[in-house]
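To whoever is on call:

I kicked off a structure prediction for a single chain this morning and the downstream step that reads the tokens threw a length-mismatch warning. I double-checked the sequence; it's 213 residues and nothing unusual in it as far as I can see. Pasting both halves so you can look.
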Amino acid sequence: MNQEYIIEVSNVKKYFRETKALDDVSISFERGKIHGIIGRNGSGKTVLLKCICGLTPVTSGAVLVDGKRVGKDVEIPKNIGALIEHPGFIREYSGLANLKFLAGLTGKIDTEKLSELMESVELDPKSRKKVSRYSLGMQQRLGIAQAIMDDPDILILDEPTNGLDNRGVGWFREMLLKKKEEGKTVLIASHNSADIELLCDTVCEMDAGKILH
């Protein structure tokens, strides 16, 4: 492993039956930077992120996260916080109750810190509103909260500004730049090239399961 890179993807192919979702993808991401992946829907961005997180096994090739091969040395890397597609929240619970449930799985964070976390993403921890009644933007903020709650070394975010208003987008950008200052590595996939270009140290484009540049 090259110590400079925290994520290394080598010759990865991914098939879903006859459909090729990733076509011999090789790319590496340096630690401590914000990296962007752009591409239209169906380009392979989300599948690549799922392979890095260990949520989807590769058909061939290898993914290394911090020197450990995903699916072999480790099933799901523990130093990753992710927001990919729709977070699996319990819709009849409040936002805080959902975060408490997730925190109970690791025991790393107490209720007071969870309340502070919700306030940091501009949600009210005292609200009893069920997640089923959350707007898309509120669900996205809660999804970002669950991604950052364990203070992971790596943040992987798929279309993170979906549903956020202008104020939410501004807050999100500030939060990511702060994470970078803290030495975190961030990987963002989006079809919104403006967001990506403002935030990212590196940008690559995907289409038809391939890295174009």
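Update from on-call: the warning came from a stale cache, not from the record. Cleared it. Sanity check on the structure: The chain has a mean pLDDT of 91.
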